[in-house]
Amino acid sequence: MPPPDPSLWIVHYSRAPPTEHIPANRIHVLPQVQSMLGQRRFLQSQGQLARKDFMLHDRNNWPTINFPPQVAPQGFAQVPPAYPSAMVGRQPFYPQPGSGVPAPAGGAPAKAPRGHRASSAAVNAATADFALEDEDVSAGDMMDLLTPREVSKMRYQQHHEWMEEIFASPYAISQITPVSLGLGRKGELESLTAGFFDAPSGPTSGESKDAADSAQATKMEPAKAEEFADRVAKKVADMTAEIEKLKKRHARRMEKFNRTSLLKDAELRLREAAADPNATGTEIWRLEGRIEIPSEGDETQTPPASEPKAKYRVDDVVKELETSWKKQIVPEPKVSCVQKGGLLEKIEPEQKLEAPADGDIDMGHADSHLLDQFGSPPPSGPVQGSAPIAQELAAPAHVPGVSEVPGINAPAPLQTTAAVPQQSVTMSGMDVEMDMGNAPPANTAAGETGDWVMVNDEKKDQGDKPAVGDAPLHGIETPGSGLQGLTPGNTGGDTGLDGANFDFTNMDSAGDALAAYTEQNEVLDLPDLENSAFGDAFHASDNENTHHHDADDMA
Amino acid sequence: MDDPATRVPGQLLPHMHLVSRHRFPLMHMMPTDTVVEYLLGAPKIVREAQPMHWTFLDGPQDGTVMLTWQPLNHLGTNFASDGYVWADVEQAFTFEARGYVGRPDL
């Protein structure tokens, strides 16, 4: 059990026994009690004391309560003597307000709502918030203490005092000049009032201009007023004009804006437009309005697809746009030639017509096949490697191959076709090129052994590879690769391919291989082949061909 | 010695009470045993259970029981004003209970 604390009291209020009841009017109120009640009344008039809880032994949180600063209560001075007996041995009495420990963190306690200040019948909470240091709004301001009647009365008096300044003045109204009304302007409107009214000026020039100000706070001359009115009217007109201008600009801008949105609108409508929304048909190409015809036997006949009907006509949309934009709408091709460039025009179609006339096989056809199917890779390899017939054609067939070598990396058909005619021109004189028509079989051969093409592609220097005797496939490649040696001279399209000047010396292996051509010549029954400048080349290919046959046999 | 009353202006002290937040039941008769019991429990209450706060008393109703801290160093045993005008002089008596001597004021 802790030692009892004599400072802790239990306070109990209870009604006295009836025998001790004393009528209120017989209670003698001592002066001390009077002053005590007065002090209480005063303190209660200061509002409520904000409640701050703290533990009794937590001295850091002991609140500091300040006496209301604005009052010097009369009755408080003589209070201390009221308790003479209690003063024994106590600590310094009555510390100066505010000199004690500073108020706990948070400063002024939260302001309690002020309410029943007048009726302080509340049991526990009626005291002043003495800790407030700012304006004591918790106790209300002056307006809280005023009744509406008082406010009205004060206002009435004030107004009358103001009016009296005028009406009770010994001066006539005409003699009274008002103070400067501050009509002067700075900034945007300075030009308007400059010269008539003084604009409020900064404190720097204020001192010197004071005299002038008072002097100028006079009545304005009528003429000057008129001038000022004119200036104002002009200014207003100017501003109105500017407003109009801005409005016009805005309208233009909006129109432009709307036209742009018109484009977008039309684009949206085009999605639902058709050339003729009402047209229908069974044609297969119809995107809209197509009528499905149920196929025979299709019993579960579905009703016509409920696709939405086109709402607009394309022509209408176009016309509308054209009128609103005042511009013509033209179809835009996906590819348009900006500049033709240095490539030569294609004159092949005539050749195609001539070639078949000379030979029994459609060379043009062969050409097209070669070009179509092989694109960039030189077709010569396949040509040689395939049927025996193709062997004799090796040289002629090489020629397109050669022409295509430059195009290996650029598979555009235009290049090859552009180069081909010139070679064929050369060949036409030799009666050889007609047999190029055998290329189609070559194509099939190429289809069988497609990897030849690849070899030709990657290795240009395979000419020195032992064409004969090696792997059959290699032997087949060699003519092609040897021919590729021609490419430098051939790129121009007309240099190395000129008729008899066609220089095959570059293709070493191919030349050797062609030496054996004659062996198969009879079989092929090619006319005038011996006379041709390509004869040797053919022999070579023939030779190679034999090997190829070997390869076939082996296979 | 510092105590909570030193932070309160002397002019206010005769009107203010440091009251514990602890709530006692309202009772119209209070036996001394109960008072002793409350008093013995008071140190524990103020030390651990409930905070105190300064407040005015304005005529508490009959039956009110509360635990207060009396600034003995400043006011002695004079109870600060509570809104009542006491008609008669203070009466006191002592009694003994559980080894303690009580001296209630009436």
From TrEMBL, chain A:
Keywords: Coiled coil
Compositional bias (Basic and acidic residues): 539-555
Entry-linked InterPro entries: Ssr4_N, SWI-SNF_Ssr4_C
Region ranges (Disordered): 198-226, 459-497, 533-555
Pfam families reported for this sequence: SWI-SNF_Ssr4_C, SWI-SNF_Ssr4_N
Domain SWI/SNF and RSC complexes subunit Ssr4 C-terminal: 133-546
Ranges where the SWI/SNF and RSC complexes subunit Ssr4 N-terminal domain occurs: 1-74
GO BP term (any one): chromatin remodeling
Coiled-coil parts of chain: 229-256
The keyword Aminoacyl-tRNA synthetase is assigned to this record: no
Domain of life of the organism encoding this protein: Eukaryota
Entry protein name: Unnamed protein product
UniProtKB/TrEMBL annotation, chain B:
UniProt source species: Aspergillus oryzae
Protein name as annotated: Unnamed protein product
Source taxon at top rank: Eukaryota
Database matches in Pfam families: SWI-SNF_Ssr4_N
GO biological process: chromatin remodeling
SWI/SNF and RSC complexes subunit Ssr4 N-terminal domain boundaries: 2-100
